[in-house]
Each structure stands twice: as structure tokens, then as C-alpha cells.
Amino acid sequence: MKTRDRILESAQQLFSQEGFEKISTKRLAVEARCNEVTIFRLFGTKNNILEEIINRFVEESKIIKILHECLTGELEQDISKSILLYQSFLQQHEVIFRLQLKLSDSDNQKFLRTIDFKNYLVDHFIQVFYVNKINHSPEVFVNDMLASVMGGFLLKILTKNRFSNEREEYFLNEKIKFYQKAIKQYQNH
């Protein structure tokens, strides 16, 4: 494994376990089996290491490509697929999510990006709402839907995974039904 990759892997593990602010570059160098000077030569700052970790996860997920391939324009199916994909995305990137929870508010705002997932969904639902004559803000709808999924995911993390898979699946299915039904009240006939 290359030195750069060892540093990133060690940083990801340490930051998510103990928090970004608690880990010094000296400690990171020991864990990554390299010299502290090497860290600064490769990354410049500890903040740049964090930014690269987050960028790698977002890049690796290819979530926009998946969204593009599976969304059809059919309102109820697209709501279901959006919720399930977002839940899957959060589960696949739990380490990054945990890492961001450990950042201070100022760092969190600096690094917590509004991933393209939300923006893509808003753009998609603008068209779907138009076709289905939905008189509601797609941005408000998408933000609410994703916040609900994020809230459930955060609850699972904070309760140390005390939810069974069946219970988690039940709540996810109930969310899907709720949003499918709720949006219909804004439909003009």
C-alpha cells in the first residue's frame, strides 16, 4: 500500500473513532508508519487530509449515476427509489458520517458538503412534479424526505445499532408510504 493511502486509511479510522480535533499529525504519522514531514509534504494540512477522505467517498459512491439509471419519472416509484438509495448511501458511508459527527460546528460546515444527491433529486422532482401537476416545492419535499431518512440513520447510530434489520426496514417502508401519500395532497386534478 502506498504511503498516501496508508495515511488516508489511518486518518479515516482515527478521525471517526476519536474525532478530527483530537488527532495530531504526529499521532497520525505513527499510525500510518511514516514521518510527520511526509504528511505535510503530501497533504499540506490536516484539513486537506479530511477533505480528501470525504471527496474519495463521495467519488467512489457514484450515486448520481445510480440515480440517473433508476429514476423513471413515475412519482411513487421515484419516491421509493430515492429513499432506499439514500439509506443505502448512508449505510455504505457510515464511517464518513460518523467522522462528520465528530467535527466541531465550524469544521463541519467547512467539510460537510451538500452532495449532488440532493441537488439531482430536486432537479428530477421539478420535472416529475410538473408532469404530475404537483403544486408543492420540490426542494422542500426533497429536503424533508432526505432529512427524515438521515434522522432515522442518526438514531440508529446514536442507539448503537439497537434496531433490528426488520424494524429498520419497517420504518423505511413506512417513510416511503408516508411520502407517497403526502405528496398526493398537493396534486391538482
Structural overview:
Residues 106-114 have low confidence and may be disordered. The chain folds into 2 domains: 3-54, Arc Repressor Mutant, subunit A; 62-184, Tetracycline Repressor, domain 2 (Orthogonal Bundle), CATH 1.10.357. The chain is mainly α and 189 residues long. The chain is built from 11 helices and no strands. Helix 6 runs parallel beside helix 10. It is elongated and about 65 Å long. The protein has helices at residues 3-18, 25-32, 36-43, 46-61, 63-70, 75-92, 94-101, 105-111, 116-131, 138-158, 165-184.
List keywords for this structure.
77% helix, 11 helices, 189 residues, mainly alpha, elongated, Arc Repressor Mutant, subunit A, 2 domains, Tetracycline Repressor, domain 2
